[in-house]
Design goal:
The protein is α/β, with parallel strands linked by helices and 210 residues long. The chain has helices at 3-16, 20-29, 64-74, 113-123, 141-158, 166-172, 189-192, 203-209; strands at residues 35-40, 54-60, 81-84, 98-104, 124-135, 175-184, 193-201. Strands 3-2-1-4-5-7-6 form a seven-stranded mixed beta sheet. 38% of the residues are buried. Residues 206-210 have low confidence and may be disordered.
Length: 210
């Protein structure tokens, strides 16, 4: 990991995740999590104050620098928190060990997204829930064109893939989407098309794996 990734990138991520849209939606999305929760990409821990009905939180984050910031948020948590320094493609938890997986503005930044979603499926209990709020591929061709053109730049500077079709990726990983809201939130159109929803492991995928 280079100097930029160690020293500058975590600061940019922390500041970027504090924007007004994210601040508005955290209290709406995070409290949906319950019981034993795995948060993918906990970052600097900005979701921690919004959990309200959980027994334990596992916070997954590959950045040591962001985990240091999250450790300060953990101190005021009313529930046990285990911070895990690991990538989403290799989650250090047992099969079917969590009741909720939560991902907020994280799936765009995972290098091997298909492998990561398979890992989330693996650790989630059969009756568990995957809760997500993510930006991704827009429905209109003009915005998609800008996303495709800008994707290499954002991937290099911010590790962000602008044009992922989030709902399709989730279904392809073996989940069945229960609820899904798709719409533009505030901000530039190439960044602001969102997928907000809940999914469960598909029963047939568990049968096939057994």
């Amino acid at each position: 990991m280079g100097w930029y990734q160690r020293n500058i990138f975590p600061i940019l991520i922390d500041r970027g995740m504090r924007n007004p849209v994210m601040t508005e939606y955290r209290p709406k999305i995070v409290p949906q999590a319950s019981k034993t929760v795995l948060e993918i990409g906990i970052g600097s821990g900005l979701n921690i104050p919004h959990y309200s009905n959980i027994d334990r939180l596992y916070g997954l984050e590959p950045s040591k620098e962001l985990l240091k910031k999250a450790a300060h948020m953990v101190q005021s948590a009313a529930f046990p928190v285990d911070l895990l320094e690991a990538p989403a493609e290799d989650i250090p938890l047992e099969d079917h060990s969590v009741d909720t997986v939560l991902s907020s503005w994280t799936l765009c930044s995972i290098p091997e997204i298909k492998a990561a979603l398979k890992e989330m499926h693996r650790v989630l209990k059969p009756q568990g829930h995957f809760i997500f709020i993510e930006h991704g591929q827009a429905p209109d061709s003009q915005t998609r064109g800008w996303q495709d053109r800008l994707a290499p730049i954002f991937r290099t500077l911010a590790g962000c893939n602008l044009n992922r079709k989030i709902d399709d990726l989730i279904v392809d990983a073996g989940f069945q989407i229960e609820t899904l809201e798709t719409r533009y939130l505030k901000g530039p159109k190439f960044l602001s098309y969102h997928f907000i929803g809940r999914a469960q492991p598909n029963d047939s995928s568990f049968f096939a794996a057994s």
